Task: inverse folding
């Protein structure tokens, strides 16, 4: 068998152990003194699963801790079977995990699972971004004075909203005391601004009104435009605290 | 200010840069290791903390960049975007050495994230020679290629692993990264002669040595990088040192990674062996 054909069949075999490639490939490789050809193929199969499961564990820390090893491994194997890796860096594996979970039967018991996966994936993405620094509090005040100036949210920030209290669920990644009471009502929608602060990731819980406002800055927008049609129930306190976050964490940039 | 990467000095003993040690290294401790090796794919596309750590380290230490996804023995075309990003990364980091593995890692649409063996044939030798030339021309650098641990051998091979490496150095100008742990593991699993192996290797082409600890599974050795150095591996290293001494030598630990001081102790042990062989 030519090497090209071998490579293709080998990849197929690693993914599906009961495939027809098995016998064909075994004819091309020989038993070692200490390890048979059959066992050698098993070693590569086991290794493939283990590496990808580890990559998922490293990104989806809260889901792993919440489900435990056995359930997470089952879920991970289902995902691996559905989505092979096309990445060069194993750390990037898991980009479809959240959407994959939408139709997974685990969702019956863990309704928040795909939202939690989405949060953890965003956390990973923001972690790897270059920190984009916007205007500080003073500069922001100057910008506010010029209502026509177009401003935009920095690229190292994300505006996220969930049907469940995702930050509290995410905190379960560090939960290790089985005696601790970790039961809480997670059926509370959450609006989040996630951004880089130095090498750390910050999450700000926003009100729906604040989230509506900040979403308008995902594209360049002037303050005049943003506030020409504000959310009807927004209060001055909500606006003030939102702009305090934007100034302190330097999250708005003038669009030049 | 652009920092020009340091070149390797008298301290030829390096350690693999791994994330569990980031916090410790950020304190800029006084350490025994003289250089660090970074896995290229862990750093080349991130602008986050891993990249910052690497940027900071290179101000103090020489850096070697070691890839895991080049898949030089693949029969698919290279992913030129990957190579382009890699080239940019090397230009920014200015490593004293770049390397990857003599293997294929899967297919473009299905990376197995493993280092997979190929048959030692003349056909593959010619194929590799073309691919190495393409890569080195594109990157504008010489690359060192590492011998790998393989759990099976091909019936179709027409030469031994070391004969293949020797032939490769004759027909290409690439360098070699000699992983002694891989040699030891392969020689045990396939009953090959490690002395014959290392005696055949042209050491003038070996630009880096890797040392690590393997684990034992059902009677065969597994290249897990999860243990300290084994005495037999030290003996193999001594045999190299008696022939050539100043090859940059790396100790790597990838599974159940211990605290940094344990790795430092391994470096001290390797340094003592090196001094003994002087």
Result:
């Amino acid at each position: 068998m030519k090497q090209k054909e071998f490579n293709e069949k080998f990849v197929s075999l690693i993914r599906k152990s009961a495939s027809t490639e098995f016998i064909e490939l075994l004819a091309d490789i020989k038993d070692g003194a200490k390890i048979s050809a059959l066992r050698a193929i098993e070693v590569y199969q086991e290794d493939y699963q283990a590496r990808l499961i580890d990559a998922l564990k490293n990104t989806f820390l809260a889901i792993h801790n919440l489900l435990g090893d056995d359930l997470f491994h089952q879920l991970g194997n289902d995902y691996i079977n559905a989505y092979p890796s096309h990445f060069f860096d194993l750390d990037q594996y898991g980009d479809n995990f959240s959407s994959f979970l939408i139709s997974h039967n685990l969702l019956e018991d863990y309704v928040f699972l795909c939202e939690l996966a989405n949060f953890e994936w965003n956390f990973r993405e923001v972690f790897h971004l270059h920190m984009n620094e916007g205007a500080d509090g003073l500069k922001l005040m100057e910008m506010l004075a010029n209502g026509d100036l177009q401003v935009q949210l920095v690229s190292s920030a994300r505006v996220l909203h969930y049907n469940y209290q995702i930050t509290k669920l995410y905190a379960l990644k560090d939960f290790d005391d089985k005696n601790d009471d970790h039961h809480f009502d997670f059926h509370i929608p959450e609006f989040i601004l996630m951004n880089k602060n130095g090498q750390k990731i910050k999450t700000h819980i926003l009100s729906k009104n604040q989230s509506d406002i900040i979403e308008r800055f995902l594209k360049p927008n002037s303050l005049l435009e943003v506030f020409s049609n504000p959310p009807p129930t927004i209060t001055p306190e909500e606006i003030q605290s939102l702009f305090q976050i934007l100034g302190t964490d330097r999250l708005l940039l003038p669009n030049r | 200010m652009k920092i020009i990467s340091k070149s390797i000095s008298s301290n030829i003993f390096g350690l693999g840069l791994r994330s569990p040690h980031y916090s410790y290294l950020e304190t800029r401790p006084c350490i025994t290791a003289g250089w660090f090796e970074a896995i290229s794919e862990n750093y080349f596309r991130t602008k986050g903390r891993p990249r910052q750590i690497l940027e900071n380290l290179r101000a103090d230490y020489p850096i070697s960049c070691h890839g895991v996804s080049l898949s030089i023995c693949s029969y698919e075309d290279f992913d030129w975007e990957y190579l382009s990003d890699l080239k940019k990364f090397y230009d920014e980091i200015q490593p004293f050495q770049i390397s990857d593995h003599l293997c294929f890692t899967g297919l473009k649409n299905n990376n197995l994230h493993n280092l997979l063996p190929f048959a030692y044939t003349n056909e593959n030798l010619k194929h590799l020679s073309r691919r190495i030339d393409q890569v080195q021309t594109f990157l504008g650098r010489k690359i060192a290629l590492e011998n790998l641990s393989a759990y099976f051998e091909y019936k179709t091979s027409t030469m031994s692993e070391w004969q293949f490496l020797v032939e490769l150095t004759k027909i290409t100008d690439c360098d070699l990264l000699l992983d002694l742990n891989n040699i030891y593991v392969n020689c045990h699993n396939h009953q090959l002669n490690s002395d014959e192996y290392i005696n055949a290797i042209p050491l003038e082409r070996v630009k880096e040595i890797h040392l690590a600890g393997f684990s034992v599974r059902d009677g065969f050795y597994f290249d897990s990088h999860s243990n300290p150095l084994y005495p037999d591996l030290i003996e193999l290293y001594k045999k190299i040192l008696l022939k050539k001494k100043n090859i940059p030598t790396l100790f790597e630990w990838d599974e159940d990674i211990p605290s940094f001081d344990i790795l430092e102790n391994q470096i001290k042990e390797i340094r003592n062996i090196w001094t003994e062989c002087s």
About this structure: The longest strand of chain B covers residues 220-227. Chain B has one domain: 13-276.
